[in-house]
Known about the structure:
Helices cover 56% and strands 14% of the residues. The chain is of the alpha/beta class. The chain has two domains: 4-133, 3-Layer(aba) Sandwich (Rossmann fold), CATH 3.40.50.2300; 149-212, Orthogonal Bundle (Arc Repressor Mutant, subunit A), CATH 1.10.10. Strands 2-1-3-4-5-6 form a six-stranded parallel sheet, with helices on both faces. Helix 3 runs parallel beside helix 4, helix 6 packs across helix 10 and helix 8 (172-179) packs across helix 9 (183-197).
Amino acid sequence: MAALRVVIADDHPVVRGGLRKILEVEPGAEIVGEAGDGRQAVKVVLELRPDVAILDIGMPLLNGIEATRQITRRAPHVRTLILSMLSDEAYIIEALRAGAKGYLLKDSVDVDLIRGIKAVAQGKSFFSPAVAKVMLDDYVRRMAERGVTDRYDMLSEREREVFQLVAEGRSNKEIAEILFISISTVVTHRTHIMEKLDVHSAAEIVLYAVRKGVIA
């Protein structure tokens, strides 16, 4: 099996060196390029077309979220993993909306980097455990403030199946093939899921799934 081709983008050479050190001992990953700012990151990714791009959220010239947005639009097959010191949910949501597949905290990079790269390369979502906990705690708090109950129980068995597959980043075509249903049926299920859960995008479905523990 070919090694996953990875680009690292961070404005701190020490951080890039640390990431390189971790990946160099991993037989399943190969660093094919590096960048020190967001604009350079987009350029390198578009030139090398790696499997995964690891992007620091706070890079100069172009931040990681905007770089992710450009990469997702121009090279949609490249999976992006955001690297950050910030666990604020607003940043996480913005990263997902930009097209990022994962969000990794720098203080957990030694443990989760390889797992995160492998997950996002497969089109799955990945979050540091601390990030998932922050989102869950914030979700529970807001639900309590609104005085409403969790709507997940409103989903049918089939809708829960579709919900998880959507959260894993599967396309409508892939979901239809996995569940042996038509694409139009998948679209209908997605519409019902979003209405029942009061979510408005695939990114929000991912966040909901993480909060519920449906995906890691």
